[in-house]
Amino acid sequence: MSLSFRGYRLWWKKYPMMLLSSAFCSITTALTPYVAIYLTARIINEIAGERDVATLRLLVWLSLVTTAVLAIVNAGLSKWKTYERKALWYKRDKFYTGKLLSMNFKDVDSAQTNTLRGKIQQSDTWPAWGLGGLLADFDLLVESVLTILGAIVLSCSIFIYKVPESAGKLTVLNNPIFILVLVTAMLAVTFTVPMLINKGNSYWANYSGDITMFEKYRIFMTKSSPERERALDTRIYCQDVMGKKYLDEAMVHGDRATTILRPMRFFHTSSTAVSHVFTLLIYIFVCLKAWGGAYDVGSITQYIGATTALSGGVSGLLRFFGNQQNNAPFLMNVYEFLDIPNEMHLGNKSTGKKKENQYTIEFRNVSFKYPSSDKYALKNLSLKFNIGKRLAVVGQNGSGKTTFIKLFCRLYDPTEGAIYLNGVDIREYDYREYMDLFSVVFQDFNLLSFSLGQNVSAAVDYDAELAEECLVKAGFGERLKSLPNEMETSIYKDFNKSGVDISGGEAQKIAIARALYKDAPFVILDEPTASLDPIAESEIYEKMNDMVGDKTAVFISHRLSSCRFCNDIVVFNEGRIIQHGGHEKLILDKEGKYFQLWNAQAQYYTT
Ligand SMILES: Nc1ncnc2c1ncn2[C@@H]1O[C@H](COP(=O)(O)OP(=O)(O)OP(=O)(O)O)[C@@H](O)[C@H]1O
């Protein structure tokens, strides 16, 4: 229950109107039948008794008007509830996306977080457990409690009114044993049905920790296959066959579920039969008491209606508690995810000097292991450089170049050692402000299916002149002129028929323009020209000084020729810096890694 309360508090904090509208709607849904039951009983009593026309007319009008008003109010409230619950999946996902965006990058990147997200997604999309499941249960709770209260008010007098002595043998109905039998029968029926339903549902709860069955199917069939960039791979390598394998696996689980639930269904059906027998007993008891003269004939409707509703209400309440029990493992997954700490956001110092552009960066004995790995990706790294420099980072695959950038941008914190900005450990700076110092083009950058201008500025409203200037600098000027709506042209066609498809190299130029538009003091380009043709590449490098201006630029590149314009080159090998200096100096060391890398490329260009 405490897990559920926490979930309700989350919903309440973010969407209070959603719970309020649900509560009001459930109140009218639960109480409306009782108004009809009560007034119908009064009308029948009047017909069977005094038959006063004025009273009858009043009762009939009252019945019609209250029923109509309640129906209209209920319709209005349920419309409100529907409105508040619109795009529910999106509202629910905001709990997760909000957390993901504020989380330390290392946790976003970790396998454990990914597994948790998979589990949450599976429970959310399929049997509607987790946070989403709480909402349906909320309706059940309010309706059940009110149904029980209403039923108690309308039915308690059934045992109070006694059959008069004049009724002869029927006075036996006054014996408390009848009360006992009826209450026992009612409790038996009331408990059996929800118990069986909960038992059936608990089958699914066993799978709260298992993401493998539907999740794999989902990844292949629903997540990957609609993505355009994967469509080619899917076709050429027939990846849908792999997806089908997991679908079949999921179906086997589905069949198992059906088999296991079969006996449950038998019990469900049996319990329905039992509950009908119980209703029959109530009918006999209530009618006989009325026949004996304990109350008027109209009260039969009232008692029967109320006791049947009471049973339904108690059963609903028990189902609610059972659901909370079954939902607990799913909610635990959700909270484990939401409770991942954000310790990267603890610093509060201002980076301050952005306008003055005065920065010195120093890596002091930095070592780093990825959380999921025992191996050092970087080992005892020391490096110092000032603003305005051009630093090239080279090395073989897996030597730690990208990791170095990730630490520099504080996507990860060092395992040992520290990084200093102007002599202050970067962990002491306000995280957001520190991030503002960087423009990065990663190898796996992403563009969005929005307008070109919005992509360059990463904003809805943008400075078109500046965006154009950056695109021209990044070598996209000619292509820009050929676009139907220039800066307003949509990239890709997802949202716009007149959108344009762009090549990998063009996308890379837009990504470089985006980095320039941000106007951050550090520009970091990880393989910035990997997709560019040789002419575009050489143009970019020729213009590099002009493009970067007085900013600090860090380039990671496997094309060693591109490093020549950098004042500083560091050579990485197995997580360490093994050489450091200018091109002219490094190339002289014939035994060095730099010479080896340079020659490996240069040999094919020389005769
Ligand atoms: N998220 C991660 N989790 C665990 N290990 C990782 C992760 N990312 C990289 N590594 C490991 O860290 C080491 C350095 O990787 P890194 O990506 O920094 O190399 P790189 O020099 O940029 O390589 P490339 O030239 O191929 O881009 C490699 O051994 C790699 O397997």
From TrEMBL:
Pfam family, one: ABC_tran
Transmembrane intervals: 58-77, 140-161, 177-197, 272-291, 303-322
Record CDD domains: ABCC_MRP_Like
Entries under InterPro entries matching the protein: AAA+_ATPase, ABC1_TM_sf, ABC_transporter-like_ATP-bd, ABC_transporter-like_CS, P-loop_NTPase, Type_1_exporter
Protein's UniProt keywords contain Nucleotide-binding: yes
Any GO MF annotation of the entry: ATP binding
KW Transmembrane helix (keyword) present: yes
Subcellular location: Cell membrane
The ABC transporter domain, residue ranges: 361-599
Keywords: ATP-binding, Membrane, Nucleotide-binding, Transmembrane, Transmembrane helix
Any one GO CC term of the record: plasma membrane
Main localization of the protein described in the UniProt heading: membrane
PROSITE patterns: ABC_TRANSPORTER_1, ABC_TRANSPORTER_2
Membrane topology category: Multi-pass membrane protein
Top-rank taxon: Bacteria
Name of this protein: ABC transporter ATP-binding protein
